[in-house]
Amino acid sequence: MIGDRSDRTTAPRRRELSDLYATVLEVVKRYRGVARITRVSYGAGMPVDRLRTFVDRLLALGLLRTEELDGRPVYDITARGQEFLDTYWKMRAYVEVLEPPLEERGRRRR
Questions:
Q1: Can you name the CATH fold of 15-109?
Q2: Quick one: pLDDT at residue 35?
Q3: pLDDT for res 39
Q4: Would you state the pLDDT for residue 12?
């Protein structure tokens, strides 16, 4: 039934800032040095204008690098960016082990 409390327990969790950064890095990594902003936008599921702020932050932190290809910027992940992803996935695995199952979370809210 739509609007039933059980619908809320199966809803995907909201993406945290670290999740968004990791998603952008994963998409850029997939394109192996030729990731254009629109491709990353589609892959990360966020609008280009919002994505630009994330890309600028990742560039400033040294997790991404940019080059010009055919007069337009393309992005690639740096070694430091890969290190971030490795650490991110390890931490996600630990957090998932500590989080209660969806069924339990739904019972607590009632």
A1: Arc Repressor Mutant, subunit A (1.10.10)
A2: 96
A3: 96
A4: 67
